[in-house]
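stage 2 :: seqdesign
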C-alpha cells in the first residue's frame, strides 16, 4: 500500500473523517440579535454563517472554507477542549430540546477563540453528528 493511501500515516492526504459543517465563533454568536435567534428557529444557518467541510487528519483538524482567506487549520496544540454543550450563546431553545442538537464547542488557543460547530446537521430532525465528532477529536487529542 502506498504511504499516501494509509489512513494511519501522518503524511496521508486522506482524512480519517470528513463531514459538512456550519459554524460560528463565540464572538459572532454574541453579536446576534433577538430577531436572528428567532429566525434560527427556522434555519440555524442564520446564526452560523461559516460553512464548509470539516476534516480530521492524523496531524490536524481542518475547517475548510472558514473565511475569505481559506481554511482554518488546527493542530492538537491549538485546541484546549472539545465538548458538546449548550451555552448562554447557543441554548436549548435555539438548538432544539433534544440533546442531539448540542453544538460542538472547540476552545482554541488561536485568534478564532471559541468555535461553535454543527456537523452534519439534519435541519428537520434537529440532530447533528457533534457527539461522535467530540469523541473522535478528544481521542485524537489524547493521541497527539
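stage 2 :: out
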Amino acid at each position: 500500500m502506498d504511504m499516501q493511501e494509509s489512513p494511519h500515516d501522518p503524511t496521508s492526504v486522506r482524512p480519517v473523517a470528513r463531514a459538512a459543517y456550519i459554524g460560528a465563533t463565540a464572538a459572532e454568536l454574541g453579536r446576534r440579535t433577538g430577531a436572528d435567534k428567532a429566525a434560527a428557529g427556522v434555519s440555524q444557518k442564520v446564526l452560523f454563517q461559516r460553512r464548509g467541510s470539516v476534516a480530521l487528519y492524523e496531524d490536524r483538524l481542518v475547517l475548510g472554507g472558514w473565511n475569505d482567506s481559506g481554511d482554518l487549520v488546527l493542530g492538537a496544540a491549538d485546541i484546549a477542549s472539545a465538548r458538546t454543550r449548550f451555552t448562554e450563546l447557543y441554548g436549548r431553545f435555539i438548538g432544539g430540546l433534544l440533546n442531539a442538537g448540542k453544538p460542538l464547542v472547540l476552545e482554541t488557543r488561536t485568534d478564532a477563540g471559541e468555535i461553535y460547530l454543527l456537523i452534519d446537521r439534519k435541519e428537520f430532525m434537529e440532530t447533528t453528528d457533534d457527539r461522535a465528532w467530540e469523541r473522535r477529536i478528544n481521542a485524537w487529542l489524547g493521541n497527539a
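stage 3 :: structure notes
- Residues 1-10 have pLDDT under 50 and may be disordered.
- The radius of gyration is 15 Å.
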